[in-house]
Write a structure and sequence with these properties.
Layout (H helix, E strand, L loop, with lengths): L2 H21 L9 E9 L2 E6 L4 E6 L11 E7 L2 E7 L5 E5 L5 E6 L3 E6 L9 H12 L2 E6 L10 H12 L3 E3 L19 E5 L6 H8 L4 H12 L9 E4 L5 E4 L13 H7 L24 H7 L5 H12 L5
Parallel strand pairs: 3-5, 8-9, 8-11, 9-10, 11-13
Antiparallel strand pairs: 1-2, 1-4, 2-3, 4-5, 6-7, 12-13
Helix pairs in contact: 2-6
This protein binds guanosine-5'-triphosphate, magnesium ion (MG) and zinc ion.
Amino acid sequence: MAKRKLTHQQQRRIRTTRERKHQLPEGELGDARLGIVIARFGQRALVEDNDGQRRQCVMRANIDSLVAGDAVIWRPSDDTGVIESRDARRTVLSRPDYRGHLRPVAANVDVMFVVIAPKPEPFDNLIDRYLVAAEHAGMQAVLVVNKADLLTKDDPVTALASAYKALGYPVAQTDEISDPTAEAIRPLANNQTLVLVGQSGVGKSSLINRLIPDLDIRIGALSEAIAKGRHTTTAAELYHLPSGGHLIDSPGIREFHLHHLPAEDVAYGFIEFQDYLGRCRFRNCQHDHEVGCAILTAVAEGNISAARLQSYRNIVDAPRPN
Ligand SMILES: Nc1nc2c(ncn2[C@@H]2O[C@H](COP(=O)(O)OP(=O)(O)OP(=O)(O)O)[C@@H](O)[C@H]2O)c(=O)[nH]1
Ligand SMILES: [Mg+2]
Ligand SMILES: [Zn+2]
């Protein structure tokens, strides 16, 4: 991963903490409190304060957006509360909604767990799209192969996992039968804020249940209120890890476009391309057929896989929604 980027991100984190202290010195909070957004639904958000107390809050109109993981200042009023302001975000994971508008999904995330499984099979280049998004957002990325009990001999998912491992991404394999408490991924999770992403049905929510064994009630309560008993996740929700840190479950998706990113940023998100970027003969090289293209040369010499170049092309050539 890009070390430089993480350092930059750490600096930002320190700055945000300072700004926050500066903005609200101890004792000047009045009846306002610091909190973290657990989940957002419609014009309301479930907020937890430092004592672990939770309340449904409404948002002041000046707050542009709120998502799970946002740090906020809120004020109790009767048995609800009002969110007064939101802190600057350290990182944000956004994705386009069904109309193609970019929407934030989770805030202040350090590590993205890209969850895949033998069933449902990973489609197109969804993994690469997530990895590009993670790199662009300054998050570390980890590939989690879940439902390993369903892996067949010579499963394509095993080959995929080794390819990403070779690129330098941490890869962990787990399943609910041989690893019911998800020990395989715990060391990658400690004391950070993680988001679990991936297609619907790969087992993101089940994985959270395995990591936080006493969680069932809260998942049930929320999915009943919001999804009328359906088990598929419909809103991002934050959970606390017993060992420290937070986990954000996100709804599975069919498509994850990167239309909001210029082609150069997409290329930078393919981490093994980074060494070659800026070395093509033409400044505006599309890494397609151009003479003197450093990326095409790297593919020809076996330093970049043809599959990843193809995936890059698919992402930048994907038709835009109307
Ligand atoms: N065989 C097997 N099945 C699993 C495993 N983990 C989860 N499942 C099953 O996979 C199905 C989907 O699990 P969920 O946790 O709801 O998947 P999700 O990724 O949260 O799905 P969305 O919320 O729709 O995005 C459930 O029927 C689980 O029982 C596993 O390790 N092995
Ligand atoms: Mg789910
Ligand atoms: Zn090029």
